[in-house]
C-alpha cells in the first residue's frame, strides 16, 4: 500500500488568506500596542480625578440628607422617653400640645408633631412656613389637612419611617415611634418634615449656577429639585413638586434612561455611585446619583448634575484620540490585508486554474495575466503554454480515456495487458454515396455531429472511445477501468446510439437534409489493451482477433437487415453475458471473413429502452 501523504485529511488554508492575515495581524498588533499604551495613561489620569470628584459630591449630599433626617429621628426618640415615663401625661391633651409646641419650636427640622391614640384619633402641632405654630385636636384642623397612615410598629420597634405623605401643603417624610407604658403601646408619636425644608438643606451643596441637586422617590417621583424657577438647561419647570420626572420638564432627568453609562468610573461604581453622560438641548451634562435607604418604604435617589463642558471635553478628547487611533489601526490593517491579497492573488489564480487542469476541465481554464513581478510572469507564461499543449493533445486523445488514465496513473493503467472486454464497432451505411453530394466542410460537419452523438452515448455508459476509422468508430468497456458488466454497458450504449440516431434523423428530414442508417457490431473476448506503438508515438488501443470479429459483425449487418435504420448485431460471447430478459433474436451461425469457425449471431432490438438493463447492473457485477 502506498504511504499516506503527510498532510492528507488536514484542513488547508489558502495562501492569500495566510499572507493577508499575516500582514494584517502584524501591523494591527504593532499599532494596537502603541495606541493602548498612549490611551491607557491618559485614561488613568483623567478618570482618577473624575472618580474622586463624583465620590466627594455624592457622599457630601448623602451625609447632608442623613444628618438632617437622623437629627429628626433623635428628637422623636427623646420625646418618646418622656412620654413612655409619663413625664408628659397623655391624658392631659392640652399639656401634651403645649409640650409638643415647645419641642417643635426648638427643632427647625420638624414640621409636624402628632399623637395617634388607639382609637385612631390624631392631634398635635403644625409649624407653618412662616414659623407660626398651629396646635390641632384633629388632623382636619391643620392647614393642608396633614394626614398619614401609620406604618407597622411593634412595641419594641425602633423609629419606623413611613411612606411619603403628599397634600396641598407639600410632601412630608415622617417617622413614627410607639409610646409604651406597662409594656403595651398606648399611642404613637409621629414627626414629619417638609421635603421643601430638606431641599433647602440640599441646595446648599450646589456648586453654583452650573449644577442642580435632586431627590427622587422610589416611584420615579421628583420630590426635591434645587432649581424651582429656572432650569439649568433653560426654561421653567412644567409642574410643581412633587411631580413625576417626565412631567416636571427637566430634560436632563428625563434623559437618564437613555444616558451613557461611564463604566470607567469604577471607583465610584464600587461605592454604589452611578455616573451618566446625558445630552440635553444641545449641551452635555454629567449626572451622578446614588440610592439612599432607611427613610421610606422604597429607596430614594439623591444626586446632582452639572454642565459637563470641561469634563466631557476631556472625555471626548480621550474618546476622540482613541477613535482616531483605532481608525488608523483599522486602515493600516485593511491596507496590510489588501497588500497581502495583491501579493498572493497571482498565486491564488495559479492554484485555481491548476485545479481545473487537474480535473482536465481545460475549457474552464482562463489564461493567467502577465505580471510585473519577474518570477510570477515566467510562471504565468509557462502555465499558459502548458494549457495550450494540453488542449491540443486533448483534441486528438479521447477525453474520457485521458481522464481515466490520469486518474488511475498512466504508468500502471497504460501498460499493455490481456483483458476480457466488450467492443462496439459502428459504421454509417452508404456514407460514400451521401458524401458525394456534400462539400468537404459539409462532410466534416456531418461526421462531427454524428460522432458527437456516439461519443456522448459511449462516455455516458463509462466506455472508452478507441478511434474513429473513416465514418466508423471503435469503443470498448472493461479498460482501463475493470468492470464485470462490460457487456451490459456496451448493449445499453448501442441502444442509446440507436435512439439518438433516430431522433437526429427526424430532425434532418424535417430540415430537408438526408438521413443516415447505421450498423453496430458487439463482441466480447480477450484482447491486448494498453500502449502500443513506437517510443515517441504511443497509442492506447486494443489489439486482437476479437476486434476483427466485432468489425465483421458490423459488416454482417448489411446482409442480415439491409433496410433497417439501425441494426445491432452481437456475438454469442456478448449475449451470454447479458441478464435474462434482454430483447434479442438469433440470426443463425455465420462464418465471418477471416475466421475459420462459425459465430452465433444475435440481433438486438434497436428500439428497446436502455433503462431496462439498468436494474440488473448489480446482479451482473455480482456474477
Automatic annotation (TrEMBL):
GO molecular function terms listed in the Swiss-Prot or TrEMBL record: adenylate cyclase activity
One of the GO BP terms on file: cyclic nucleotide biosynthetic process
Cellular component aspect of the GO annotation: membrane
Keywords attached to this entry: Membrane, Transmembrane, Transmembrane helix
Pfam families (UniProt xref): Guanylate_cyc, HAMP
Highest taxon in the source lineage: Bacteria
InterPro entries for the chain: A/G_cyclase, Adenylyl/Guanylyl_Cyclase_3/4, HAMP_dom, Nucleotide_cyclase
Transmembrane segments: 20-39, 318-339
All copies of domain Guanylate cyclase, residue ranges: 422-554
Start and end residues of each HAMP domain: 341-395
Protein name per its UniProtKB record: HAMP domain-containing protein
Amino acid at each position: 500500500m502506498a504511504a499516506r501523504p503527510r498532510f492528507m485529511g488536514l484542513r488547508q488554508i489558502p495562501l492569500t488568506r495566510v499572507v493577508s492575515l499575516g500582514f494584517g495581524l502584524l501591523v494591527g498588533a504593532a499599532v494596537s500596542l502603541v495606541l493602548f499604551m498612549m490611551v491607557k495613561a491618559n485614561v488613568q489620569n483623567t478618570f482618577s480625578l473624575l472618580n474622586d470628584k463624583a465620590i466627594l459630591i455624592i457622599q457630601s449630599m448623602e451625609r447632608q440628607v442623613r444628618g438632617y433626617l437622623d437629627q429628626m429621628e433623635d428628637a422623636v426618640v427623646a420625646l418618646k422617653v418622656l412620654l413612655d415615663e409619663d413625664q408628659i401625661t397623655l391624658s392631659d391633651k392640652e399639656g401634651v400640645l403645649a409640650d409638643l409646641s415647645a419641642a417643635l419650636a426648638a427643632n427647625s427640622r420638624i414640621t409636624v408633631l402628632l399623637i395617634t391614640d388607639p382609637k385612631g384619633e390624631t392631634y398635635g402641632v403644625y409649624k407653618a412656613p412662616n414659623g407660626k405654630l398651629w396646635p390641632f385636636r384633629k388632623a382636619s384642623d391643620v392647614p393642608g389637612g396633614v394626614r398619614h397612615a401609620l406604618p407597622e410598629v411593634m412595641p419594641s420597634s425602633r423609629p419606623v419611617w413611613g411612606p411619603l405623605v403628599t397634600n396641598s401643603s407639600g410632601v412630608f417624610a415622617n417617622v413614627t415611634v410607639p409610646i409604651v407604658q406597662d409594656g403595651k403601646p398606648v399611642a404613637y408619636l409621629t414627626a414629619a418634615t417638609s421635603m421643601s425644608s430638606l431641599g433647602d438643606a440640599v441646595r446648599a451643596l450646589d456648586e453654583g449656577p452650573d449644577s442642580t441637586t435632586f431627590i427622587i422617590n422610589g416611584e420615579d417621583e421628583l420630590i426635591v429639585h434645587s432649581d424651582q424657577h429656572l432650569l439649568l438647561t433653560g426654561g421653567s419647570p412644567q409642574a410643581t413638586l412633587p411631580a413625576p420626572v417626565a412631567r416636571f420638564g427637566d430634560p436632563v432627568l428625563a434623559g437618564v434612561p437613555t444616558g451613557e453609562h461611564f463604566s470607567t468610573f469604577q471607583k465610584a461604581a464600587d461605592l454604589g455611585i452611578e455616573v451618566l453622560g446625558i445630552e440635553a438641548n444641545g449641551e452635555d451634562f454629567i449626572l451622578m446619583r446614588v440610592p439612599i435607604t432607611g427613610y421610606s418604604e422604597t429607596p430614594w435617589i439623591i444626586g446632582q448634575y452639572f454642565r459637563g463642558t470641561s469634563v466631557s471635553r476631556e472625555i471626548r478628547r480621550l474618546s476622540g484620540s482613541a477613535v482616531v487611533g483605532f481608525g488608523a489601526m483599522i486602515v493600516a490593517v485593511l491596507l496590510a490585508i489588501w497588500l497581502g491579497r495583491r501579493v498572493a492573488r497571482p498565486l491564488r489564480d495559479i492554484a485555481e486554474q491548476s485545479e481545473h487542469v487537474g480535473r482536465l476541465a481545460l475549457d474552464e481554464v482562463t489564461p493567467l495575466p502577465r505580471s510585473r513581478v519577474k518570477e510570477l510572469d515566467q510562471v504565468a507564461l509557462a502555465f499558459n503554454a502548458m494549457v495550450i499543449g494540453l488542449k491540443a493533445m486533448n483534441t486528438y486523445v479521447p477525453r474520457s480515456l485521458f481522464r481515466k488514465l490520469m486518474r488511475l496513473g498512466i504508468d500502471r493503467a497504460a501498460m499493455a495487458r490481456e483483458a476480457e472486454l466488450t467492443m462496439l464497432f459502428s459504421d454509417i451505411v452508404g456514407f460514400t454515396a451521401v458524401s458525394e453530394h456534400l462539400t468537404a466542410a459539409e462532410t466534416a460537419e456531418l461526421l462531427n455531429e454524428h460522432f458527437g452523438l456516439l461519443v456522448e452515448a459511449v462516455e455516458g455508459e463509462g466506455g472508452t472511445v478507441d478511434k474513429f476509422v473513416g465514418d466508423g468508430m471503435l469503443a470498448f468497456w472493461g479498460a482501463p477501468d475493470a468492470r464485470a458488466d462490460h457487456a451490459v454497458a456496451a448493449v445499453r450504449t448501442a441502444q442509446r446510439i440507436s435512439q439518438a440516431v433516430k431522433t437526429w434523423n427526424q430532425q434532418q428530414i424535417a430540415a430537408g437534409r438526408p438521413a443516415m442508417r447505421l450498423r453496430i457490431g458487439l463482441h466480447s473476448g480477450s484482447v491486448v489493451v494498453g500502449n502500443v506503438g513506437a517510443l515517441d508515438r504511443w497509442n492506447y488501443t486494443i489489439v486482437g482477433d476479437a476486434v476483427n470479429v466485432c468489425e465483421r459483425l458490423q459488416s454482417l449487418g448489411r446482409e442480415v437487415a439491409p433496410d433497417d435504420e439501425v441494426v445491432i448485431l452481437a456475438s454469442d460471447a456478448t449475449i451470454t453475458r447479458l441478464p435474462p430478459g434482454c430483447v434479442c433474436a438469433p440470426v443463425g451461425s455465420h462464418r465471418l471473413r477471416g475466421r475459420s469457425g462459425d459465430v452465433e449471431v444475435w440481433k438486438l432490438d434497436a428500439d428497446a429502452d436502455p433503462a431496462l438493463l439498468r436494474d440488473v447492473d448489480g446482479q451482473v457485477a455480482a456474477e
